[in-house]
Amino acid sequence: MIIPGFLIALVTFPGVIVHEMAHQLFCRWFRVPVFDVCYFRVGNPAGYVIHEIPQKASQQIWIGVGPFLVNTILGALVAFPGAIPVLKFDAGRPLDFLLIWLGISIAMHAFPSTGDAKSIWRGVSSRDVPVLGKVIALPVVALIYLGAIGSFFWLDVLYGAAVALALPSLITSVFA
Amino acid sequence: MQPPPLPALNCQLCEQPAEADYPAQLCSACRTKLSKRAFPLWIKLAIILVALVFIYALAKAPASLVASIAFERGQRAEANGNYATAAKEYAKVVERFPGSTSAAARLGIAQYRAGDRDAAAQTLRSLAGRQASKELTTEINAVIAEMQEGRDSAQYQSSASASSTGGSSNDILDRFLAENAPTATPFDSITQTTRRSAKPGTVVADDVGGTKINIPPPTGFFRFDGKSNRVDAQLKSGLASTNRLLAAFASDSDLALAMKNEIPELRRWLFAQTLVKAGYFTDTSWVRLKSSTRSDLQADIEKLNSSALWAKIQSGVVSVSKDLGLEYGGANVVPLEVFDEDAHSLCYAVLLKSQFRAADLDKPVTVIQYETAAMLYVHQRVIYLYSCAVFENKSDAEWARNSLQRWRDEVAPANQ
User: Fold this and answer.
1) CB-based burial, B354-393: b 16+ in 10 Å, e otherwise
2) What is the DSSP-derived secondary structure letter of residue B162?
3) Does residue B274 surpass a pLDDT of 80?
4) Residue A155 included in any domain
5) Contact A22, A71 (CB under 8 A)
């Protein structure tokens, strides 16, 4: 099923905002000047951060990967308390469903855009990054790239649902 | 010769000297300022909102996690046959999520398997009206069916007896089964699908301690109360004020007399009573009542002869006798024996000696009635069935006993 991207972005707008904020946050930590930010809009892309190309490749990677970490962690944490009553105990209240929606929205925008992926790839492939760093970073970057492309096949939604809904079960199984 | 120094580049924003080695021509201050670009107000508000939700989520997370872990552990324990542990773990979940059908169902099943029938009944009762998956529905119904079979079995009967001597009680289970089983599951209740069709003429006695009791008519007898005020007054006169007549059955000819507003002969008849304030009985209290009735039958009935209650009944009979042109000379009851007993009933017999004097007779008439009574425990209530025959010979006594037993054996299943 093909649903226009802007509609998906509209429904899951909190994730777009968190995604762009994560970019900006990492820029701030690395003292990379930000020239323009769009946190959300109805268009393609739904949001963006225009910043200076960082001095170090590692900074470029972190800025690119930042949303992946922030959105994944935040999405999982927000959805967790809602997912358990809804999925495990069929005892969800409206607020639980709100948490799940928020969690999935945030988590599904964890994947960097193709623009981000290219930027990360540039960083990893630069001469500054030692071979060991490339070996470690390559699979991660490949996964992110795959995710960026795979959003066309709902991979981002699957990822968001997995993080928001399946992770609680996984965590529970580990502790039980 | 050295090349001439390159002219220093200035910041594109403030014309101050730009920092070297950066792609953008920015001074240190402007670089820092741009990197620390402020979030717009609406984003700040959104951050506050998300932060509040996040804090709420974080506050809820430990409890949800604990419940989720408990559920997993419960499932594991249940799979290993460790039902007591499973019930303990599931109880933690239900405490946290009382609205969870799956958790409550698992708890009820585990409690039942662990032998805690009281708790199981209480837990399963809480499922009334809820929706559940087909698998869970089937499982719950199977457990309810097991509970019912257990109640009817000899094992249950012995455990009920044990409960009267300090063993664990099955009270709530029985109440659950008797009153709530049909609605205990949203689920195609077995009790509903196996409900027997009522015998024609079955009287549904309303509000016997808040519940309904089915009273099928004894075979060959017909309900005659409610057909004539005069007859009803006579029936009422023989009734203790503490008691309530549920239905009275007599032969077809007696019914015809009642319909003619004449007093029926009532040489053989049956009736059902309950206490006006019919209370709720538990298995334990029923067993206790049965036991005390059995052991104190003689003493209790002898006491009855000299009680105020008996005197009051006598005065009622006096006025009714006048209506019939008779002078009532009093009556007394002689206890006989308990002649039958099962888990849900106790049958005993008494002889009732009444004396009347008629204006056209010189000598008083003595009427001996052979009365049998069955205390019957149905739907957590106790009702009383009576079969009475004017005693002329042994066959009357045999009829009273046998007809009572047959009737009891019809009434009890009509209420299952």
Assistant:
1) bebeeeeeeeeeeeebbbbbbbbbbbbbbbebbbbbbbee
2) H
3) yes
4) yes
5) yes
The DSSP bridge pattern shows strands B365-378 and B345-358 to be antiparallel
Q: Which tokens is A16 given?
A: 């777009």
User: pTM here?
Assistant: 0.52
Domain that holds residue A159: 55-175
Q: Is residue A111 part of a domain?
A: yes
| Length in residues, chain A | 176
- A172: exposed, middle or buried (C-beta count within 10 Å: 0-12, 13-18, 19+)? buried
Kindly list the distances between the CA atom of residue B120 and the CA atoms of B81, B86, B126, B134, in Å, as whole numbers in the listed order.
16, 13, 10, 20
B335 preceded by a cis bond (ω within 30 of 0)? no
pLDDT for the residue B315: 72
**B45-192: CATH class:** mainly alpha
Comparing B3-12, B108-117, B151-160, the range with the smallest average pLDDT is B151-160
The upper half-sphere exposure of residue B256, i.e. CA atoms within 13 Å in the direction of its Cβ, equals 3
Smallest CA–CA separation between B131 and chain A, in Å? 10
Query: d(Cα B252, Cα B222) in Å, to the nearest integer?
Result: 6
pLDDT number for residue B193: 30
CA neighbor of A111 nearest in space, from A38, A160, A53, A63: A160
Chain B: which residues have CB within 8 Å of chain A? Answer: 21-24, 26, 30-32, 34-37, 39-40, 43, 46-47, 50, 53-54, 56-58, 60-61, 63-65, 67-69, 71-73, 76, 93, 97-103
What is the DSSP track for B12-50? TTT-SBPPTT-SS---HHHHHHHHTPPPPHHHHHHHHHH
Coil, strand or helix at A39: coil
A29-53 mean pLDDT: 90
Start-to-end Cα distance in chain A:
38
Does residue A26 form part of some domain?
Answer: no
Q: Residue B165: what pLDDT?
A: 34
Contact flag B35-A102 (C-beta cutoff 8 Å)? no
B398: CB partners within 8 A, 6+ apart:
none
pLDDT of B406 over the 80 cut: yes
pLDDT bucket at B155, cuts 50 / 70 / 90? very low
Q: Considering the domain boundaries, does residue A149 fall inside one?
A: yes
